[in-house]
Amino acid sequence: MAFGRKKTPVDGEAKPAASRNVVLAQEMQAYQSAVQLMQQGKFEKALAAFEKFLPGAPALLQERCRMYIAACQRQINQHQRVFNTPEEQCDYAASLVNSGDYEDAREQYFAILDKHPAADYAFYGLAILEAVTGNVEACLDNLNRAIELNPRNRTQARSDTDFQGVFDDPRFTELLYPEIA
To answer: pTM here?
Structure first.
């Protein structure tokens, strides 16, 4: 080898130790993220993460990944929520908002709207969710749609403390009190 030139790996040769360490650290981070999702009860997301991780997983973790995949699948099957009505699903989504599980609540509301696009109560629930999470534009859009579909939502929103974060917005006032505007 000539002085000053570094030898680089050729196909079939081992990668430098530093490169292997970086890859291993990334793999471990992916694995730990999947485990955290599982511990948080987000079994569907954990399942997807483990399934993505498994093909390139170090041999020592492959069996453990398979075990976690099976556990996630059991939990998903056991906890499949069956709702008799879309209103029941909306109540469940509202409970998720109240417990701070905004992402899952949003998914539930969208699932309702996929099957029932005129479900004013789902738009109202989304409006509350967006108000609670500080997304004023989406809150107002969803509340407006809820009122268009069912004008009684206007009266309900006037006294709903979940909209506290948007009470001072003039667009909120115009939406709830059009007779004044």
So the answer is: 0.59
